[in-house]
Design goal:
Helix content is 44%, strand content 19%. The chain contains six helices and five strands, in the order E-H-E-H-E-H-E-H-E-H-H. The structure holds coenzyme A. Coenzyme A (COA) binds next to strand 1, helix 1, helix 3, helix 4 and helix 5.
Length: 161
């Protein structure tokens, strides 16, 4: 698929930082496939179907964004989907080393695959899903961290945890 990009991640749950990457990628590419990792070694708080649902709701205004689940290697999934670009968000220098390693490993596994980095805006570079989970599960205000349309669902779910 030409001019398509995969944005992979755990999205446990989606945050405004993720949405910013999706919005900017959707302006650059004809199609953005947001790919939720199913077989993560992390123990996710939100199930795969919850994470996909939340992403679908958060991106419903974007016509060129698709939400999908994937298993196994990202490099193989990209090949299977006929996509030759991955987009990742870079929040701080601390993200760089890990992302750089992954980009090189993915390129070794699939030489056609390019990794493109989108830098976070300064007001969102501190944000992570685990921060949202921790603050939300302790009753704190997460309205500055998650898309407004999924805020209540995330709050309700984290309080039930
Ligand atoms: N805004 C907000 N948070 C962001 C963010 C952004 N722009 N970019 C990353 N994050 C946060 C995430 O919320 C997450 O936070 P948490 O750890 O507090 O939950 C953290 O950064 C890590 O992001 P995650 O979505 O887990 O992605 P990852 O960088 O760990 O990579 C995959 C996940 C799916 C891309 C990777 O594990 C993968 O490719 N797996 C498939 C198996 C594979 O191919 N392995 C070989 C890879 S070389």
């Amino acid at each position: 698929m030409r001019n398509a990009v995969i944005y992979p991640g755990s999205f446990d749950p989606v945050t405004l930082g993720h949405l910013q990457v999706i919005r900017r990628a959707a302006r650059m590419f004809d199609r953005v496939i947001v790919a939720v990792l199913i077989n993560s070694s992390k123990n996710p708080t939100f199930s795969v179907s919850e994470r996909i649902d939340l992403l679908q709701q958060a991106t419903e205004d974007f016509e060129n964004v698709e939400i999908a689940g994937f298993n196994g290697l990202l490099a193989a999934y990209a090949r299977e989907r006929g996509v030759t670009a991955i987009v990742k968000g870079l929040r701080a220098v601390s993200d760089f080393e890990y992302e750089f390693q992954m980009a090189i490993a993915n390129k070794k596994l699939n030489p056609d695959l390019e990794t493109i980095f989108i830098t976070a805006d300064s007001d969102l570079m501190y944000l992570s899903s685990s921060m949202v989970r921790e603050i939300g599960s302790m009753g704190g205000d997460i309205s500055h961290f998650v898309p407004a349309c999924v805020h209540d669902r995330i709050v309700e779910r984290l309080r039930k945890k």
